[in-house]
Amino acid sequence: MKLQEVFESYKENILPTYTKVPLIFVKGKGSRLWDIHNKQYLDFFPGWGVGNLGHCHPKVIQAVRDQVAKLIFIPNNYYHVPQAKLARELVYWTYPAKVFFCNSGAEANEGAIKFSRKFGKGRYEIITFENSFHGRTLAALAATGQKKYQEGFAPLPEGFKAVKFNDLEAVKSAVSDKTVAIMLELIQGEGGVNVATQDFVMGLRKLCDEKNLLLIVDEVQTGVGRTAKLFCYQHYGIQPDIMTLAKAMGAGLPIGMMVVKKEISDTLGPGMHASTFGGGPVICKAALAVLEAVQKEKLLNKAKIMGEYLFSKLNALKNKYALIKEVRGIGLMAGVELNIEGKQIVEKCMAKGLLINCTHDKVLRLMPALNISKKEIDQAIAIIDAVMRDIAI
């Protein structure tokens, strides 16, 4: 198809549910993308957190090729080896648990909500947080603490209370005899890269233990090395009762997971929950390749080193430009809060060949691949610097 034909097909045939950028990408490798005109871009926001290994990692490509030639799909009433191996790996790297496989972060969070209600035996309320984001399906949307995503979709499922983030007293005040769980992102990505404090998370764990509540940690965006640990909860010295995963685990293929502590895992039995394509052979082989790459290529340590380097460069920009209010984040998940709206910076960076994101109108979001290089960070910072210099003049 020619360029204009692609645009016209989208306009005529695809629901307009996304704010589109007029770029047509045809190839990706590592942290680079090429558009239909063969212009090269440095991708510092690969797939809203999907691309922790960058684009088309060779281990993932080989794993998918091998599996596609053997068995693409088998329903979940049968057994297959890749799912058994992936579940075992996840439990090894997390905590004694059992895993439910699905296709996305929203679906994983829906599963966690449904699990909680069954566990509660009449208790059904879940406390969530302002500026959180848990997905676009109805229950996940009701759990999301941002009204702008909920407008026009009433009535939403009941049973959710959104309170102030990092405010333990607000959580305690919200707990009732109907409360069954507390659900949070340890770093609120869509909410502006807001980082949970150590005391807050420890306090939530203690409160859940005292009240027999489930602590649900949404690691859809923070998981798989994004924060320089395999999972973000490992920074806090706690274990969740349920952890939800997706995005980076599939390296671009659709995957979701609900990891449930073993002692409560029999809450759901046969016929209570399902996902037709969840944990299929191809996606499980891809996810196994992701975990192998993270370990063998020492990407957690690299994310720590490159994250420190990235934040040093971003803080240098903060000292240089008054339009930067704050730099925050962990590992290679960075938010740059501005005193102005960030849309023009994103657009000007894109024109210069750098892809970044802006959330909450004023927070630039950078989430480069874990295997990013110092040279690539320097290139990205040089572009942001040039753009900010032009705006500041």
Structural notes for this entry:
By secondary structure, the chain is α/β, with parallel strands linked by helices. The protein has twelve helices and 17 strands. A seven-stranded mixed beta sheet has the order 4-12-11-10-7-5-6, sandwiched between helices. Strand 2 (32-35) and strand 3 (40-43) form a beta hairpin. Helix 2 (58-68) packs antiparallel against helix 9, helix 3 (81-93) packs parallel to helix 9 (281-296) and helix 10 packs parallel to helix 12.
Brief digest:
This protein is 38% helix and 19% strand. The chain is α/β, with parallel strands linked by helices and 393 residues long. It is built from twelve helices and 17 strands.
Please tag this protein with its features:
alpha/beta; globular; 393 residues; four-stranded mixed sheet
The tally of beta strands, per DSSP, is 17
Q: What structural class is derived from the secondary structure elements?
A: alpha/beta
Strand order of the largest sheet: 4-12-11-10-7-5-6
Helicity level: 25-40%
Strand content: 15-25%
List low-pLDDT spans.
none
Layout: helices, strands, pairs:
Blueprint: H1 3-13, E1 25-29, E2 32-35, E3 40-43, H2 58-68, H3 81-93, E4 97-102, H4 105-120, E5 125-129, H5 138-143, H6 147-150, E6 160-163, H7 168-174, E7 179-184, E8 187-188, E9 194-195, H8 198-211, E10 214-218, E11 242-245, E12 256-261, H9 281-296, H10 299-320, E13 324-330, E14 333-338, H11 343-351, E15 354-355, E16 357-359, E17 363-366, H12 374-392
Parallel strand pairs: 3-15, 5-6, 5-7, 7-10, 10-11
Antiparallel strand pairs: 1-2, 2-3, 4-12, 8-9, 11-12, 13-14, 14-17, 16-17
Helix pairs in contact: 2-9, 3-9, 10-12
